[in-house]
MATE family efflux transporter
Amino acid sequence: MLNSGVRSVRHGGPGGSTRAVSGGGLVEERVPARRVVGLAAPALVVLAAEPLYVLVDTAVVGHYGALALAGLALGGVLFTQVATQLTFLSYGTTARAARLFGAGRRTEAVGEGVQATWLALAVGALVVVLGQVLAAPAARLLAGPGEVADNAVDWLRIALFGAPFVLVTMAGNGWMRGVQDTARPLRYVLVGNGISAVLCPVLVHVADWGLEGSAVANVVAQVLSAGLFIRALRAEGADLRPHPGLMRAQLGLGRDLVLRSLAFQACFLSAASVAARTSVGAVGAHQVVLQLWTFLALVLDSLAIAAQSIVGAALGAGRREQARRFAWQVTGYGLVFGVVLGVVFAALSGPLPLVFTSDRAVLDEVPHAWWFFVALQPVAGVVFALDGVLLGAGDAKFLRTATLAAAAFGFLPLTWASYALGWGLVGIWSGLTAFMLLRLVLVLLRTRSGEWARVGAVW
């Protein structure tokens, strides 16, 4: 409790905080809530822009025919799987850039963005080459031979040319979040997606390019957004030459984040597989609730992005106690945010599923997953917030190990037991619940230990 002699003092520097001081001693140091919101709100729009564009793309192609829509769905899944494994270009770059920015070394922070961009171009070129070779076998493995796979391959082989630019955009988001600039990424992503949303129906329907028109529009969006991020690097006056040593350091952090992403993919692919083997109604209900889960994960992830930037900057500036205090501060924000979302979606349990389907078999299965989804929102709010804290600290090895352990001892055993014992969606979503609760315990213990809070511009 602060006494009447307490006064507030602004602490300068990146991610400035408010200190409450009594008698010359430090009592409390908090990051203003408006600072957190100022970073999280634009990040949320950037995170939501891609799913919203996919909805527009789906609607446009859907009117071209069911076969084209099926090809887009399959091709889109394959493309997304590749991009998902390379998110270290965003999250890893944020962690490294934020520390340098906090230490007052903005030029070097931007330099992390330069090296991440070179990595993005190199990895993206490899994805293009391998993708052209593997597109057909991968599509036929998932869908079997036939017109759906053929359409997916036609779309994917064009869309893959956008892969280097998607990765450049990830890297651009990473370094800009690191220097606590979330406004420019918002503009860049909206410009690219906005132009493409207009171009897509023109190419698909007016030019009658069909599904291939959708792929071309995607590539145009990705080139535009990436070009804006590259222009921003040039405007910073950073050294644009590649530095292999820095890129190797980024890849070291990336290795742990890729393994963590693979654990997520193994879990959710297993859940989809078991749901598909349960019944048509079960797989439909799982898809509806899982898409809502994914959307709310993006909403909560915006808070994690703000936490990454602020924690990284605090540790880079040597403010270890501020980073530790902020970890618990953002935990509170995540908990409140999650409770609010849980209450909202509990109230929508009746009408909202009807927006997605009128099929009675699906609707009858939805409650078996819905109440797990609702109850997990407060847990997700805390877990995602602390994920952001630990990512901002560069504690990727711990997050990798924690995620693999939670998958191996929680999600996967219960999911496959559900298949063997006929538990249906209750078993699948019990697996997700165990996964989240194990992660909750592990990240809380790690945060309490303080071992993650290593100060310095680099680690």
Observations:
- Strands lie at 7-11, 17-22, 25-30.
- The chain has three domains: 1-30, 36-242, 255-459.
- The mean pLDDT is 88.
